[in-house]
Design a protein that fits this description.
325 residues, alpha/beta, TIM Barrel, five-stranded parallel sheet, 13 helices, globular
Length: 325
């Protein structure tokens, strides 16, 4: 079955990588992340654009824009010009990352959320351009919850306490971040918005269904085994109903990584490809079968979705929500 991975980070120019994608019948939509790094364009956008230009049958890409320069009256104009160039170079969308709301502050020390006025001209440009806005605006809800065996993200936040939000009232809550995203979706009804990582609502299929009902211009990608594990903790019938009721609103994504360094040696290539193969195989088993799987240390029964829904999840929805893909 041909599939599109609509959320991945893959610098796989080596011919061995490309041959494997052909064998897997897989096309990759590379997405930008980490725009707080001043070198993000050279390190990510340039190779992603080159892959999409030279091998369009296997690669496409989503761009982004620099963080705001407060007090700079030309900031929005420069960001828009960069997006215009990237769209002309084939980018099928623009990504807004969780730096907004979870890091960036204005000169007065206030958190800059995604509905901040400084971003409005940029969002409006994406809308006028007919491109798609990919929004990753929050960590999983577990980031705001106590650590322990009931929180599958405990291991990550124990290693990265700087990213952990529990007990930090000075930071925006998960609900505040979601509300800021919802306001952008509502203000721009002609803008296609894809919420990364199940729209950061991975913990509640009912809440996700409510967003689909409220906002016809909103879809989500699955991006990551952790999110499949979050779905697996919920009532299986309710999760299946989400896919059945909204078969055109969920895109498959793996959020896996392969860097240029991974491709530099035969051993690195083998390791990267095996990691990606295993990640995809586990995700496919969850969506396609009713087997009991071990995901993130939990026993979870697969959804066994029908073929028509799987075709949308793996292929048609990505093409629908990212025209030109």
């Amino acid at each position: 079955m041909s599939r599109i991975d609509a959320h991945i980070h893959f610098e796989g120019e080596h011919e061995e990588f490309v041959r494997q994608l052909e064998a897997w019948e897989l096309k990759l939509l590379n997405t930008i992340g980490g725009v707080e790094d001043p070198g993000w364009r050279e390190r990510r956008a340039v190779p992603y654009a080159r892959l999409a230009r030279t091998q369009p049958q296997r690669f496409a890409w989503i761009t982004s824009f620099d963080l705001p320069g407060f007090g700079d009256p030309e900031y929005a104009e420069r960001a828009i010009e960069g997006l215009r160039r990237d769209f002309e170079a084939g980018a099928v969308g623009c990504k807004i990352w969780k730096t907004y709301g979870m890091g960036l502050r204005d000169p007065e020390g206030r958190h800059v959320l995604v509905d901040h006025p400084i971003l409005e001209p940029i969002v409006s440009f994406v809308e006028r351009s007919g491109k798609t806005l990919l929004m990753h605006i929050a960590e999983p809800q577990g980031c705001w919850q106590p650590l322990g065996p009931d929180n599958q993200y405990s291991g990550f936040y124990e290693k990265h306490p700087d990213k952990y939000m529990h007990g930090r009232p000075e930071m925006p809550s998960h609900a505040e971040l979601i509300a800021s995203r919802d306001r952008v979706v509502e203000r721009h009804p002609k803008l296609r918005v894809v919420g990364a990582h199940l729209g950061s609502l991975e913990y509640d299929a009912t809440e996700l269904a409510r967003r689909f009902e409220r906002y016809p211009n909103f879809a989500v990608d699955t991006s990551g085994l952790a999110r499949a594990a979050d779905l697996g903790k919920q009532d299986r019938a309710r999760v299946r109903r989400l896919f059945e009721d909204f078969p055109d609103r969920i895109l498959f994504g793996s959020d896996q990584h392969a860097t240029a360094e991974d491709a530099a040696s035969p051993e690195g290539r083998r390791t990267a490809l095996e990691r990606i193969r295993a990640g995809h195989a586990a995700a496919f088993a969850y969506y396609e079968t009713d087997r009991v799987l071990e995901l993130r240390g939990r026993s979870i029964q697969g959804l066994a979705l029908p073929d028509a829904i799987l075709k949308g999840l793996y292929l048609e929805n990505a093409r629908r929500w990212y025209p030109g893909l």
